[in-house]
Write a structure and sequence with these properties.
- The structure is a single chain.
- This protein is α/β, with parallel strands linked by helices.
- It is about 35% helix and about 20% strand.
- Helix 6 runs parallel beside helix 10 and helix 8 runs parallel beside helix 9.
- The longest helix is centred in the first third of the chain and has 16 residues.
- It is elongated and about 55 Å long.
- Bound molecules: 2'-O-acetyl adenosine-5-diphosphoribose and zinc ion.
- Zinc ion binds next to loops.
């Protein structure tokens, strides 16, 4: 359950956040499911965290796929269909606008989301830490393909080798894509300000980017409905929907 946090001086906190951001040249961002919540994509934790009685952690593992690929694919077919219908919200658009404002290569957006909504909103430098739902790859060969919006068979097979295809996403117990992860770490180390948006900040290694940025001396600004483990290391925590807070922060940069 989300209990919206009472923030006595949101206005002053927004002003502090705007101040930090105005002075920054390089910005790194970590987003999670919360940034897409206002687009209608359900988050993992909290309400709706169970799927057909399974914890998400139990259908999103290589072990689950080996044991019951049809069950795992049913879960991903539903998610693919849901995500194909959604549009970016004001929070995604504000992050794309911030990238434009800072100029080329000054903003790196690392996302845990697999819905590709940051790209759809116009963000260019996006690091998809957990892969992308609309892409499939083969479990037997190096086949990799974009299949957005397409209805796949219950157990889709590779045209090249006949083995099962799987979603090109990172499951629990799997490594993050190596190059993408290295770029995210470098961005966290080098940034002047780090934004954490809509993540419960408990899934590693992604959540570790927040500590990496902090160790590198960057102030951390958090956007969430409620307090998270990131709140204790954030310089400013802004509690509310990211689709409202991010555009408000952007407006204040020019004010
Ligand atoms: P979670 O579902 O764990 O957390 C979503 C966070 O967003 C919570 O802290 C909410 O309070 C917050 N939130 C919800 N609505 C919001 C809104 N409108 N504005 C701002 N914040 C809002 O999602 P993640 O942190 O993304 O991994 O989860 C991390 C990873 O765990 C996912 O990438 C996925 C998952 O299992 C894999 O699949 C590998
Ligand atoms: Zn194959």
């Amino acid at each position: 359950m989300h209990h919206p946090v009472d923030q006595p001086d949101l206005d002053a906190d927004l002003a502090r956040a705007a101040d930090l951001l105005r002075r920054a040249q390089r910005v790194a961002v970590l987003t999670g499911a919360g940034v897409s919540a206002e687009s209608g994509v359900p988050t993992f934790r909290g309400a709706g965290g169970l799927w057909e009685g399974h914890r998400v952690e139990d259908v999103a593992t290589p072990e689950a796929f080996a044991h019951d690929p049809a069950l795992v694919w049913r879960f991903y077919h539903l998610r693919r269909a849901a995500v194909a219908k959604v549009r970016p919200n004001a929070g995604h658009f504000a992050l794309a606008a911030l990238e434009d404002r800072l100029g080329s290569d000054q903003l790196t957006l690392a996302t845990q989301n697999i819905d590709a909504l940051h790209k759809a909103a116009g963000s260019r430098r996006v690091l998809e830490l957990h892969g992308r739902l609309s892409r499939v790859r083969c479990t037997g060969c190096d086949y990799l393909a974009d299949r957005p919006g397409e209805e796949l068979p219950e157990l889709p097979r590779c045209l090249k080798c006949g083995e099962l295809l799987r979603p090109d996403v990172v499951w629990f117990h799997e490594m993050l894509p190596h190059r993408v992860w290295r770029e995210a770490e470098e961005a966290a180390e080098a940034c002047d300000v780090f934004l954490v948006v809509g993540t419960s900040a408990i899934v590693y290694p992604a959540a570790g980017l927040i500590q990496t940025a902090r160790r590198g001396g960057a102030p951390v600004i958090e956007f969430n409905l409620e307090a998270t483990p990131a709140s204790s290391i954030a310089d400013v925590s802004l509690f509310g929907p990211s689709g409202e807070l991010l555009p408000e922060l952007l407006r204040r940069l020019d004010a």
